[in-house]
Amino acid sequence: MAAQTAEALAALGASTIGESGGRPMAPRIRAAYPGARVAGPACPVACTPGDNLAVHVAAATAEPGAVLVVTVGDEPERGYWGEVLTTLAQARGIAGLVIDGGVRDVDALQAHGFPVFSALVALRGATKVQPGRIGAPVTVGGVEVAAGDWVVGDTDGVAVIPGDALATVLEAGRARATSEQRVFADLRAGRTTIELFGLDPTRVERSD
Questions:
Q1: Phi, psi angle pair for 203, to nearest 5°
Q2: Residue 208: what pLDDT?
Q3: b (16+ CB within 10 A) / e for 164-182
Q4: Where are the beta strands (DSSP E) in the chain?
Q5: Whose CA is closest to 33, among 105, 133, 122?
Q6: SS3 content of the chain, % helix, strand, coil (to 5)
Q7: Quick one: average pLDDT of 123-127?
Q8: pLDDT at site 88
Q9: How would you classify the pairing of strands 38-47 and 67-71?
Q10: pLDDT by residue (tens digit) across 185-203?
């Protein structure tokens, strides 16, 4: 069931989900490489700034199919994630990573095909000794994320679905996708967005 839900959400995409009741993260949270795509239940992780011990523990213990959603506090400019953690996460069945901080080894992440969404790329590494939290709500990309929420990420960005709204958002997303297909067909048939969306062209000055 979870795998089917993840597949359906990934097919709809972050933009559609974000317009259908999902909560879009800030634009700074973006795919670390072109073509990254993920959907799955969130595993919230909070690190001590400058330290990624909590990420190592989460990658080793989270449920298969989970998306690690990580806050690093006020020290984002470190490489909190790289090829070593990617190799661990893939071996454990983790679906992907969303982090409001830096990652590195981007070519390797792409070669592995492991979906990563981050605020930046940073070379400097993190320590691995400070305390952290796994499972408690975190704020990432300006959105509060709790265990049981769902995450959808692709080239357009990342959207979060509250766990208790999953069915409603999925239904609304499917309806929006169907509606957009009708719009595309009408546009190819010669109609315009002015007609289809009831726009008022008189509000736009023309000087030609």
A1: -80, -5
A2: 77
A3: ebbeebbebbeebeeeeee
A4: 23-24, 30-31, 38-47, 67-71, 96-103, 116-121, 132-134, 138-140, 143-145, 150-154, 157-161
A5: 105
A6: 35, 25, 40
A7: 97
A8: 98
A9: parallel
A10: 999 999 999 999 999 999 9
Query: Which element (helix H / strand E) includes 104?
Result: none
pTM above 0.90? yes
Pairing mode, strands 30-31 and 38-47: unpaired
Structure tokens at 144: 């509060």
19: which 2 tokens?
């317009």
Q: Give the Cα separation of 51 and 109 in Å (integer).
A: 20
Q: How many CA atoms lie within 13 A of 9 on its CB side?
A: 32
C-alpha to C-alpha distances, 1 to 84, 88, 115, 129, 200, nearest whole angstrom: 30, 25, 21, 37, 45
How big is the chain, counted in residues? 208
Q: Quick one: tokens of 179?
A: 């509606």
With tokens 């020290």, the residue in question is 75
DSSP secondary-structure letter at 65? Answer: T
**Sign, Cα dihedral of 88, 86, 136, 123:** positive
pLDDT beyond 80 at 1: no
Residue 31, SS3 per DSSP: strand
Of 44, 40, 41, the residue nearest 55 (C-alpha): 44
